[in-house]
Amino acid sequence: MLELPSTVTRSSDTLESLTICNRHARARIFLQGAHVLSFRPVGEGEVLWSSVRSQFSPGKPIRGGIPICFPWFGAGSSPAHPAHGFARTTSFECVRAEDSADGATHLRFRLVDSEATRALWPHPFAASVDITVGATLVIAFTIANTGDAPFSFEEALHTYFDVADARRVSVAGLEDAPFLDKVAGGATPTSAPGPIRFEAETDRVYNATTASTRIDDPDLVRSIVIEKEASNSTVVWNPWVAKAARMPDFGDDEWPGMVCVESANAGADRLTLQPGESHKLVLRVGVRR
Ligand code: TA6
Q1: Of the residues 24, 35, 84, 158, which is catalytic?
Q2: For the segment 217-262, what is each residue's pLDDT rounded down to a tens digit?
Q3: Can you list the alpha helix ranges (DSSP code H) found in 20-174?
Q4: 158 is catalytic
Q5: What is the CATH number of the domain that holds 65?
Q6: Model pTM?
Q7: Is 154 a catalytic residue?
Q8: Residue 61 CB less than 6 A away from ligand 1
Q9: Residue 41 is part of which domain span?
């Protein structure tokens, strides 16, 4: 059993989680999916949204926080292939938990292929999730090809951000960038001037973009800054009324409280690793006033 620093406490509810409380922030991370559910810098409100209807049962996706999508994004190729891949519903092992001199807490979670994963996706791999809990939340998601054949995959840090009212926020950074509008079928790229605003169900996949984004929230008088490395896709999503009502783990009236801005490599940006190669996607989330 890994020895934990005093800033990290383990809770064994139905799903095991770690709560981190240091001088910079408080966070909660579930071992299933190495799933960050909550991140709250000292002096700030909660940054991540989660549904009061979320399930916390083994093998079921948690609705909110930062689900890790791997090795595919979106619907699986069959009912046996869960949406957004198997990583978010598979238990990771925590192999590192320590504080650094600057007061931040660093954790590492690992997942390697198993009979269960190979039944869904026939490739040997090693996944590691390095999480730094400080005034900024940093997540590095590394995939290594440990087999003797190349494989292709998609990935996403499917982050749900907490906002006062999605109808009043804007997302800056993707102005005029081409995107696939999945609500309209997502066949051909389109674009839109100005910051993104939410006036209906919104489900946009921006490919070939490394841009940082920023959620400006006038009611909370804050901006959430989202920076990424080695991610060429950004997905922006709000289910709005009808889709929220169709999701059993999403309260009918919860959709105004969240906006997803997801740092990914999906669709045309899927990645291929040769044997022995690895790839690291990095996400940094901070609050600015
Ligand atoms: O990232 C947006 C999206 O692909 C939406 O189409 C919606 O399906 C959302 O992910 C949530 O997916 P989930 O499988 O978590 O319900």
Answers
A1: 158
A2: 999 999 999 999 999 999 999 999 999 999 999 999 999 999 999 9
A3: 115-120
A4: yes
A5: 2.70.98.10
A6: 0.98
A7: no
A8: yes
A9: 8-288
